[in-house]
Automatic annotation (TrEMBL):
Signal sequence, renumbered to the chain: none
CDD domains per record: NAT_SF (cd04301)
Domain N-acetyltransferase: from-to ranges: 7-160
Keyword set, alphabetical order: Acyltransferase, Transferase
Record keyword 4Fe-4S present: no
Organism: Undibacterium griseum
Residue ranges of coiled coil: none
Protein name: GNAT family N-acetyltransferase
InterPro entries to which the protein is assigned, alphabetical: Acyl_CoA_acyltransferase, GNAT_dom, YpeA/RimI_acetyltransf
PANTHER family listed in its UniProt record: ACETYLTRANSFERASE
């Protein structure tokens, strides 16, 4: 039995499951290969709670066991003049992979976004994460470009 829900960031079970799944993702090569720092473990939930109007965390349970999660953050499309939802974290726990749970989770997030008036979903994916890319394409995601002559968008970052 699959259960999808929007996590309540004030519910101890939900927050514990989010931290567990996020740490599992962080340990994966696609998540960087290192556990969450003690600082992150101690402060993440309170930081998310401070942003709960614009943070949407989702959990997917299989037979009452936390199996997959996503943390999404609202943004705004100036061209559409509407909110967008960025999928910041998205992962299926290794014990549950190969069961189409990622597809189910993405489908539920898409429905949620559409029902709540978001104009689009956005996400980043590593070039070498071919399984995730295949999942995202199967769910209607494509590279971002405004004008084919200018090419697709690239993701850049500057750390502090």
């Amino acid at each position: 039995m699959l259960t999808f829900l929007k996590a309540d960031l004030r519910n101890d079970r939900h927050t514990s499951d989010l931290l567990h799944l996020l740490n599992s993702y962080a340990l994966d090569p696609m998540g960087g290969g290192e556990a969450l720092s003690p600082y992150c473990r101690q402060h993440l939930i309170s930081e998310l709670q401070q942003r709960e109007r614009t943070v949407h965390a989702f959990l997917l349970y299989q037979d009452h066991v936390a199996a997959a999660f996503s943390i999404c953050i609202e943004g705004f499309s100036t061209f559409a003049c509407k909110p967008l939802l960025n999928i910041h974290d998205f992962a299926v726990h290794p014990d549950f992979r190969g069961r189409q749970l990622g597809k189910h989770l993405m489908s539920q997030i898409s429905q949620y976004a559409e029902q709540h008036g978001f104009c689009k979903l956005t996400l980043e994916v590593l070039e070498g994460n071919h399984p995730a890319q295949a999942l995202y394409r199967s769910q209607g995601f494509a590279g971002y470009e405004l004008n084919p002559a200018m090419g697709g968008a690239i993701v850049m970052q500057k750390k502090f």
